[in-house]
Amino acid sequence: MFCTVVMFPYRHNVNAMLNDGPRSSVRPLFLRLNQSRRQVDAMKQSLFDQGLLDEQFIQLEELQDDANPNFVEEIVTLHYRDSSRLISSIEQALKERNPLDFNKLDTLMHQFIGSSSSIGAKKVKAECNLFREYCRAGNAEGCMRSFQQLKKEYAALRKKLEAYFQLARQAGPQETACRSK
Question: What is the pLDDT of residues 39-88, one digit of tens each?
């Protein structure tokens, strides 16, 4: 059973308001909330359809509850804080080209892939794996190309997740399951 508490500020007959059609400029609050929630769900689905996220993101959402309603957003924020440091370290290691320390690069990328995996960043993770393959092969140019693509995927996902969380905050809390008595 799902419980949804919606404060309905109108004293008018809901059916009359719904049947008023375009003449009515007042829409019931629960319809606006429902529409906003559908937009959030559609945006999330598009992130999966584009191959940006995997099932780990869903598992994170399942851990979110009333006690910590922003859990997923907080985890993603921590990921981006940590991964920004790693990107800087990788960029610095790539600049030290006499010769490149592929073991160091592989270790840094191993940390980056772990962080990306924790939020379900599917395309970012794929680029991390490609980068690591180039490290193992000692291919400096491959590492450079892969790292540039990784940064593009990383930035694209970050932008889309920021928009997703903003829309989710505007839509308000999701329905939560209630125990049946």
Answer: 999 999 999 999 999 999 999 999 999 898 899 999 999 999 999 999 99
- What's the pLDDT score for residue 174? 64
Q: Which two tokens stand for residue 4?
A: 């949804």
Extract the tokens encoding 58. 């869903």
Q: DSSP labels for 88-138?
A: HHHHHHHH--TT--HHHHHHHHHHHHHHHHHHTBHHHHHHHHHHHHHHHHT
The CA-CA-CA angle for residues 42, 113, 134, to 5°, reads 120
Orientation of helix 71-95 relative to helix 140-171, angle to 10°: 160
> H/E element holding 3?
strand 2-3
Alpha-carbon gap, residue 142 to 62, rounded angstroms: 38
> CB burial class (10 A; 0-12, 13-18, 19+) of residue 35?
exposed
pTM (2 d.p.): 0.75
Place of tokens 């680029």: 127
**CA neighbours within 13 Å on the CB side: how many for 150?**
25
CA separation for the pair 10, 126 (Å, rounded): 51
* CB-CB contact of 16 with 80 (8 Å): no
Q: Map tokens 């049946």 to a residue.
A: 180
